[in-house]
Specification:
The complex is a heterodimer of chains A (323) and B (332). With 323 residues, chain A is an alpha/beta fold. Chain A contains 13 helices and 14 strands. Classes of the chains: A alpha/beta (323), B alpha/beta (332). At the A-B interface, α3, α5, α6 and α11 of A face α5 and α6 of B.
Chain lengths: 323, 332
Amino acid sequence: MKDVNYRTVVAGAIREEMERDERVFLMGQGVQAGGSYMTCEGLFDLFGPDRVRDTPISEDSVVGCAVGAAITGLRPIVEILYCDFALRAMDQIANQAAKYRYMSGGRMAAPMVIRTSCGYGASRAAQHSQSLESMFFHFPGLKIALPSSAYTAKGLMKSAIRDDNPVIIMESFQFYRTAGPAPEGDYTIPLGKAEVKKEGTDITLLAISAMVPQAMKAADSLAGEGIDVEVIDPLTLVPLDMETIVNSVQKTNRLLVVEGGTKRGGVGSEIIASVVEEAFDHLDCPPSRLAVPNTPIPFASNMEDLVLPNSASIANAIRRMLR
Amino acid sequence: MEISREILIGMYSKMLLLRRFDEKVVELYRSGMKGLYHLTAGGEAVAVGVCSALSQDDYILSTHRGKGHYLAKGGDLQAILAEFMEKQTGCNRGKGGPMHIIDPSVGMLGANGIVGSSLPIACGAALSAKLRRSGQVAAAFFGDGAANSGVWHECMNLAGIWKLPVIFVCENNFYQESVPVSRHSSIQDLYARAAGYNIPGYGIDGMDVSAVYEAAVEAVQRAKRGDGATMLECKTYRFHGHSEADPTKGLRYRSGEELAAWLEKCPLKQAKARLLERGWIADAELEAIDQRCTQGIEEAVNFAKSSPDVPAEWALKDVFTDDQGEICHEGC
């Protein structure tokens, strides 16, 4: 299997789904030119202006349009460049899309995908560096996928487009510059199945999105010290594969969750609470979170490096927990 | 356009149904029915005039004040009353209530509890119709208050650039809850804003069902021709308070004289006078129409009362289509 660029894989997955199902169409600011991160390259030439639609910078109404199209038989994909901008559309995401199925008593469905990016480490400061998965995580009715490789980007995208529910796909923009193996042709990765990236016996390290490569790096360096880390990438936060997480904790008896979002009310808080409820007796030390301290993301690189977890801080946290 | 006897009688009957339905809702609410009820009375001509210009498979999106729109679109009296009374047979299976009525079988894609939020959904339904080449149109009802929401301006622009088959129906009843339009809007004729989005906008007497119907027919034709959106600002008035939680009929922020003057313009009174004046209807037939409305509502109340309550455990269903998104663990 040859390596493929992450953003090429994203465009390819959308293209294959648009070829497969004429109900699928794409909306976003600049998608006709290929998207600001070139994740939609070539789609306009293939599908034209009806199915690849440039939009005004009107996140609220564009997401609302997707809701309206979804409940009347189409399968829209909306690109919102940064998840920071999705705050503009939170009424449509949280009050409308997420609740249509429920409020209609199961009579309607809103099969739609919102693609957005999260990420940090590029000196983009407080309004272009957030990881807001915990915000979406709060609302029942949204599925959330965070692909962390070219392979998962394609498989999860295809599953999301085929899913009958609203799915938020958060792509960390760090990954856009990376490449990895991804098979040609059709395959899907189920929403709700975590990936054990590395097996280990001493501690479960649950890493989200761009923290996955940092976690792998930390696990590598700790291996040299005789510490055997099990790295898990949940891939989707809703549904969340608690079975894989709990099984791992029952084996390792320790849990560290690492994420790029704010610590308070973060995804790690919820996952740890659930693990404590289900596997308290298996824990040998208090489970722990590594996340952004409760500050916005600063501009200057040295400050940004300080607030974000990385392989070194992950390794240090694990050493402390095993002491 | 000359409105036929048949259409005018049909619209009068529908308006009377909406009025009698309101009266029944008040009665049930006062005897303990739960929920927040925003009544239609005064606004019947807008709901009925617009919906009479639509086909069954056209879409409507509505507001917190959505009961009249639903019934005007051909909604099911039994399903809506069963919903209010928390029954299994309710149109939302007990999960929506008066502010979230949804019934895709008549194109009612949803009332909405958030002011302005149904507007982009209507644009999306219109976009969908356009992409599917189905010939359907979408009508979006909203109030004067919604016209100041950011999303309204976004939607007018979207509909303008994409030439969407959508009709923006503004029910300007002069009050955003308790705040008069003179205090919440920079202009008093809201339809004038449409020009800024390259959309034709019209000011309509919203108490005259014929005027609303004629304007709506033209808007539907424009949409179906592929010429895009229309905004109809229908000036109307609500005869009750913002909701039935205000039993003063809004008299803490508007005058009794003002209310009385608008009651004179009652859309039912006007339509009835026109029918009589043209000799299109006799007293006996008017009586028969009223009886049919009352009887239909009574039957629906009986249906709802005899329907089984929604089972409480339904609360855990329908979050997702596959119901597997949230794994409910023991004890939670």
